[in-house]
Design goal:
five-stranded mixed barrel
Length: 247
């Protein structure tokens, strides 16, 4: 007569032979489920992006402009590079640059941030001086026509590389605080394949008041406006009355 207790598990005794195969199979299934869950979670997350944030500060000399946000035009071997300027943390650079007139040649120290060929300088020191350097001329402005695009309003600092990812609903709270703090907003659209990023302004080219757009930050939205090319920088002169969510 067979012993029905052969497969009965007692914690202080060795595992019965009849249960070893079952336990091994359950462990394999559990490990597979954990691996699948990790893959699924990773797949559903937004891409971190390829933004770059320099570990050490560099010195920059160029021409200051506030049209439409604080920016520095730098001569890179005969080619003009335009850098958006921001302060540390979640603050724009207007206060830090208040003592310099528009069009002044200045020298400053900051961390270089870059993504999608768009450059930014995060100020590393409050000491900035007038530079004995020739003025760097603004690039010719080319109107590329009116468009209606679907995309996302982002804060430029995080999206360009300070945060990864710097977009999507997971980043909404951070983007809202940055925009309210004076970080210039940008509009990112992925309708053409690779992300296209444009500095966001009002239809007349002036800076966007943060309160007009902050509630839409990080949401999928549709927006109409004029695309203007300024050398290495693309500006989206938007009609904010057309702004609406798409989901």
């Amino acid at each position: 007569m067979a012993d029905n207790n052969d497969n009965f598990y007692v914690g202080y005794l060795a595992l019965p032979k009849g249960l070893r195969g079952t336990i091994a199979a359950l462990v394999i299934v559990l490990v597979a489920l954990i691996a699948f869950d990790a893959w699924l979670v990773a797949t559903l997350q937004p891409e971190a992006g390829d933004g770059h944030w320099a570990d050490t500060p560099s010195e920059f000399v160029g021409t200051l402009t506030r049209d439409p946000y604080p920016m520095l035009r730098v001569d890179k071997g005969g080619v003009t590079k335009t850098y958006v300027i921001v302060s540390d943390e979640k603050r724009g650079a207007e206060t830090a640059l208040a003592k310099f007139p528009d069009g002044a040649s200045i020298k400053l120290t900051g961390f270089e941030v870059e993504r999608a060929a768009v450059g930014m300088i995060q100020l590393a020191a409050t000491e900035m001086t007038v530079a004995d350097a020739p003025s760097v001329a603004d690039a010719p402005r080319e109107i590329h026509g009116r468009v209606t695009v679907t995309g996302e309003i982002v804060d430029s600092k995080c999206w360009l590389g300070v945060m990864r990812p710097g977009d999507g609903h997971i980043h909404k709270a951070c983007a809202s605080v940055c925009i309210l703090g004076g970080i210039p907003p940008m509009f990112v659209t992925r309708t053409g394949g690779a992300p296209s990023v444009m500095l966001l302004t009002l239809a007349d080219g002036r800076a966007v008041p943060p309160e007009r757009i902050v509630e839409y930050a990080a949401d999928s939205v549709q927006l109409s406006g004029i695309v203007e090319k300024r050398g290495d920088l693309t500006v989206f002169k938007a009609d904010l009355d057309s702004l609406r969510r798409t989901e």
